[in-house]
């Protein structure tokens, strides 16, 4: 059975409402940063030992999930692509920088790959990226993939511009060891309808990958970065008077 759109919309409103800090006798406070909106989907009746029931995919949502025009990514490239990436204001690595990074301590390399949400790599540099960074990027799901499974491997400056536009809207949906998916579907500052459309796109995509579609969905929650988790459930929403 499909999820009721009205419940998702009400839950988005409630998540934003309950992100406000309320203390009796004091003025309501909001946090001094633009909180992300996280969408958590718990699943049931799955066998995650079966690779066919796992998910590891970059998915383009209807609207941006970041509030700036620069997604948090690093471009590993040479020549024209490298120059274009620098011009656009992204952190970059050329082949010498990649080799230098490889000579750093393991702790430093782990910290480096965790710094970015995504990596865009020029196709001819992928062998060295695989050689030097795969063991750090792979376990956290950041290894660049070619189209159609991903958008992180490119071959021209034009490809770079297209990839950047996509990465404003891309989330990585992973279902591996535990029956739960958690993804960012927007920012608190966004229009609520856009957050709703992104959340709906996520749940529809997940359901489409499941053996029993929406029947594999056990529960769903929406929350801001520091806010209270809001269950997408009619009885729960009534209980908190949303």
Please characterize this protein's 3D structure.
There is one protein chain. The chain has 242 residues and is an alpha/beta fold. The chain has 2 domains: 5-65 and 171-239, Ribulose 1,5 Bisphosphate Carboxylase/Oxygenase, CATH 3.30.190.20; 73-167, Ribosomal protein L1/L10, domain II (Rossmann fold, 3-Layer(aba) Sandwich). The protein has helices spanning 5-17, 79-88, 95-102, 106-115, 126-137, 157-167, 192-209, 234-239; strands spanning 36-43, 55-60, 73-76, 91-93, 118-122, 153-154, 170-175, 180-187, 217-224, 230-231. Strands 8-1-9-10 form a 4-stranded antiparallel sheet, covered by helices on one side. Strand 3, helix 2 (79-88) and strand 4 (91-93) form a beta-alpha-beta unit.
Number of helices: 8
The CATH superfamily label of the largest domain reads Ribosomal protein L1/L10, rRNA-binding domain
**What value does the average pLDDT take?**
92
Question: Quick one: CATH class of the largest domain?
Answer: Alpha Beta
The span between the termini is 24 Å
**CATH fold annotation of the largest domain:** Ribulose 1,5 Bisphosphate Carboxylase/Oxygenase
Query: Low-confidence parts, pLDDT < 50 over ≥5 residues?
Result: none
Tell me the strand order in the biggest sheet: 8-1-9-10
Could you tell me the radius of gyration in angstroms?
A: 20 Å
Report the sheet with the most strands, covering strand number, pairing sense and barrel closure. Answer: 4 strands, antiparallel
The count of DSSP E runs of length 2 or more, i.e. the number of strands, is 10
Number of domains: 2
Secondary-structure arrangement, i.e. CATH architecture of the largest domain = 2-Layer Sandwich
**Element-level helix/strand string:** HEEEHEHHEHEHEEHEEH
The level of helicity is 25-40%
Approximate shape:
globular
